[in-house]
Amino acid sequence: MYLIYTTEQDAWVRSEQEGISRGLSFHKHGKGTRYVSRPAETDSDEWALPVEGYTLTDGENAMAVDSYTPKPVPEDEI
Questions:
Q1: Considering the entire predicted model, what is its pTM?
Q2: CA-CA distance, 71 to 53, in Å (whole number)?
Q3: What are phi and psi of 40, to 5 degrees?
Q4: Using CA atoms, how far apart are residues 78 and 71, in angstroms rounded to an integer?
């Protein structure tokens, strides 16, 4: 399952919110993370956040999608 966001920042914020709710935190010297999953760019210039295992609101459950089309990688970057 994925939530689709218009900006990468919004997707990262949601990932961090989930991490905070799970008690994840940064450790001394910047080690550790509060992010649960990494967003990926879609072919429509939006951002898909994998939310399997997240605690979703009713609204998020209604907006979740099963899949998305990733943004193609330019041939010169392959």
A1: 0.86
A2: 24
A3: -125, 145
A4: 13
DSSP string of 17-56, one letter each residue = HHHHHTT--B-GGG-B-------EEBTTS-EEEE-TT---
Question: In degrees rounded to 5, what are phi and psi of residue 41?
Answer: -75, 140
Amino acid at 40: A
Read off the pLDDT of residues 9-62 as tens digits, 9 standing for 90 and up: 999 999 999 999 998 877 666 667 789 999 999 999 999 999 999 999 999 999
Q: How far apart are CA 51 and CA 66, in angstroms?
A: 10
Which residue in 47, 53, 42, 50 sits closest to 66, CA to CA? 50
For residues 78 and 20, what is the distance between their CA atoms, to the nearest angstrom? Answer: 36
